[in-house]
Amino acid sequence: MWRHTMWRTCCSLVLAGALLAGGAAASNLEVADRIVVHKSERKLLLLRGERILRSIDVALGLSPKGAKRQEGDFRTPEGSYRLSGRNVNSDYYLALKVSYPNPVDQQRAAAEGVSPGGLIMIHGQPNRPTKPLEYYQKNDWTNGCIAVSNSDMVDIWLMTPDDTPIQILP
C-alpha cells in the first residue's frame, strides 16, 4: 500500500510540476483542437486543423472489432464524442473521460433493450499492473477504453482542453 501511495504521489508531483511550470516542456506543446482515433491502425492523432501534432500508439478493448453495443462487451466505441472530464486519481496513469454514450448510442441501446455502458476513458498504464509491461504495450487489454503509454498520456493531458472533440473511427 505504501509503495502504491508513494507512486501516485510521485506521479502527481511530476504532473503538477509540468502543469505549473508552464516553462519549456509545457510551452513547447501546441494545443490540439480535435482527436481522431483509428481503431484498425491502433493510432490516436492529436490535430490542430488538418495538421497532425502527434501520432500515438494505442491499445483498445479486448474485443476491438466493431462499435461498442452494450455494457460489458469489451469494445471501444465508434462515433463522435468530446472529452468531458479529467481524473488524476484513476486506477490508471491519468484519465480523460470520453462522453460515451452519446444520444445516438443511447437510442440504439434503448431500442435493443440493453445498457450502453459508460466510463470510456483515454488513460495511461495501470497504476497496479497485474501483467508484464510488454503485455500492455503489445495487446488490446482494456474493457473498452483507449490506453496509451504514461509519457504519451502526459502529452495528451497537456495538449487537450476539456470539451475537445474526439472522433473514434473503425
What are the key terms here?
alpha+beta; 170 residues; eight-stranded mixed sheet; L,D-transpeptidase catalytic domain-like; disordered N terminus
Report on the architecture of this protein.
This protein has 5 helices and 8 strands, in the order ααβββββαβαβαβ. The chain has one domain (2-169): L,D-transpeptidase catalytic domain-like (Beta Barrel). The chain is 29% helix and 24% strand. The chain is globular, with a radius of gyration of 16 Å. Residues 1-11 and 16-25 have low confidence and may be disordered.
From N to C, what is the helix and strand string?
HHEEEEEHEHEHE
Number of domains: 1
Q: Tell me, briefly, the overall form.
A: globular
What composes the largest sheet? 8 strands, mixed
CATH architecture label name: Beta Barrel
In angstroms, what separates the terminal alpha carbons?
A: 39 Å
Mean pLDDT score: 88
The gyration radius over C-alpha positions equals 16 Å
